[in-house]
Every structure is written in structure tokens, then in C-alpha cells.
Amino acid sequence: LIWVSHAKGVQQIEIQKEIQYSALILQLDQIWVNDQLFSNPSERSLGSDQRKIAFKLKLPTLRNQEITQYHYQLAGYSDEWHINSYHDNWITYNALAPGDYTFTVKPEIEGVFGAPVVYQFSIDHPVYMRWWFMLFVGLLIVGIVVIFYRRQLKIQKRKSDQLNELNSSKLTAIQSQMNPHFIFNSLNSIQDLVLKGDVENSYTYITTFSDLVRRTLNYSDKDLIEFEQEVKLLEVYLSLEKLRFKKDFDYQLITNDIEDINIPPLLVQPFVENALLHGLLHLEGHKELKVEFQLSEEALICTIQDNGVGRERAKEIRKRQRADHESFSGKAIKRRFEILSQVYEGDFDVVYEDLVSNGEAIGTKVILRMPYKQKF
Questions:
Q1: HSE (CB half, 13 Å, CA atoms) of 258?
Q2: pLDDT tens, residue by residue, 231-256
Q3: What is the topology classification, in CATH, of domain 2-124?
Q4: Beta strands 9-13 and 287-295: pairing type?
Q5: What's the rounded Cα separation, in Å, for the pair 275 and 305?
Q6: Bridge pairing between strands 261-263 and 300-306
Q7: Of 4, 175, 261, 346, which sits 20 to 30 A from 148 (CA to CA)?
Q8: pTM of the shown model
Q9: What value does the mean pLDDT of the chain take?
């Protein structure tokens, strides 16, 4: 024993106990990872899925076990020190985050601390949290954004080009409807009526012609018009041609009570004009034209049927006359159908059918398929 004198009195120190307790060697008896014995404790790097670790402590058997304690800390998880009793020699940590850790534990008996045991280990970050993976993902996202942006630019440019071409085709459609031949014939008919002194019919012709021009120009700048407006345009046009052909020409315009739909403007009239100009104009005798509309779930179907000379005969006549109106009007409207199919993502289509009886042409049928928009 050593007796030490100080201001508050005299203190007795048991040298043998101090030496005995400080010489105690604490051991990490076992290390368990994810509830399995860790067979290689020297391996200090754990996988990203190895997030549960348990330490079993071991001290020599002591007579005064009840006053023996373990002081421990896991740096990287918490700076706080914790205390377990001698018999509670398991220390477990659950759901540790990826990172570096230092486990420190030391025994304490009656205020005397034994040598600490230190175990350092780390838990790997998951692949998706590693810098190279995040860099790769970042570059991938940037690449996808760039590709998507460039693709959108191409789509916008294609749509812009399609709309420009569509507008150009609408202008061509106007030109086909107001072609010089038609205007010249209309003015000639008006002149004939005026010279004959037929004031009433000349006035009717002028009024009808003006109405046709007005409607054509009004509808030309619209993407969609009401079905009734397209029908009215056809009525005005056909009534004008009826005045020109007089009693030799009859027509039927059948709508089957279709209503509440919108369609692109100026689609049907060029085909009706072709039927008159190339099929009926060269027919001797009574000329008949039938225009009928039918509605399906997906499209508006327009059937144009004439009792004219047929397409082959019309081609021969055009060659002799060197007429180019069909190539101007027909091809333009076909191209417009192609553009409309792309812009409206619907199948605009035209089908020609030659009508024959006993080997002789008795007319032509044209079937137009036009997707529509329902009015709300």
C-alpha cells in the first residue's frame, strides 16, 4: 500500500490491484457480419450489403465480475461512449451506412481501465453511389438529354417543313380551283349572257362566281373547316358549272345528314373539277355527276362518280390538246393528301376505279378517304 497526503487528507492506494487490473488483456473473441461468423477478421473492407456487424468480447474470468464493465464507441457512427456489463459481452450494430468506422472498446474495473482494443473497418458504397458510376450516370443523362433535344429539334423542323409544304399545297389547291381555264370559261359564260341580254342569269352567274371566289379565299388560310362549309363550296361550284353546261348536265350532292365534324379545306372540289373537265366535257349527250359522302368511325368517305368518257379516253384527248391541267391539279392534290397524312397522322387516300360495260368505258369513280376531327 501507498499512503498519499494531500490538502483534504490522506489517501490509500492499492498498488497491486492497479497493476493487476491494467494488465488485463481484452480480446475480440469473434466478429459476426450479417449473422455469420466473419472468417477473415484481417479483411477490413466489407461489401455494400454487409451492413450488420457484431463483436463478442472476452476477458479472463474474474472474481469481481459484477463490478466489471465494457466502455465502447463506434467512431463514424456516433461519438458517444456506451457501457455494457461484464456478462453482456455482445455489441451489435445494425444497418450501418457505407463509410469508414473505428470500433474501440476497453474494460473498466473499479475505476481502473484496461488497454483498449481498436478495430477499424469500412463498408463499401453501393455501385450506384460510387463516384465513377455517378459520373457515368451523369454523362449518360446528359447524352440522353442532348439526343432527345436534337431529336425534338428534328421533329419540330420536320413538322415545320410539313406545315410549310401544306400551306404551299393549299395555295396550289386555290390556284387549281381558280385556274385560268375555269376563270376564262366563267367570264366567257357571263359575257355570252350579257350579250344575249339575259340580265337575270348573268346576275346569278356573277353572284355565284363571286361567292365561290370569296369562299375559296376564306377557307384557304384555315387548317380545318366545318363539313357543311366544304359542302356549300361544292354546291356553289356545281351550280356555276350547271349554268355553264345548262340542260346537258345534272348532278347529285348527297351528304347523308353528316354533321358535327371538321375536315381540311379545299379537298374535294379539285376531284369534282377533274371529273367535269376530263370525264364529262368530252361526252356527247347527257352528263351526270354524283357526289356522295359517308361517315365511318375513322374517316369521311367521298365517292365521286361520273358517266364520262373514262380515264384512258381523257388521256388521249389531253395528249392531242397538250393539256397540262391534270398534272397541275391532280398531282398537287395527291401530294397534299400525302402531307395531310403526315401532319394529322391519319390515312388520307384516293382510289380511282374505271367503270366499264361490255368492254366500253362508261365513266369513272373516285373514292376519297379523309380522316376528320369531331366537333365538341
A1: 26
A2: 999 999 999 888 877 778 999 999 99
A3: Immunoglobulin-like (2.60.40)
A4: unpaired
A5: 8
A6: unpaired
A7: 346
A8: 0.55
A9: 83
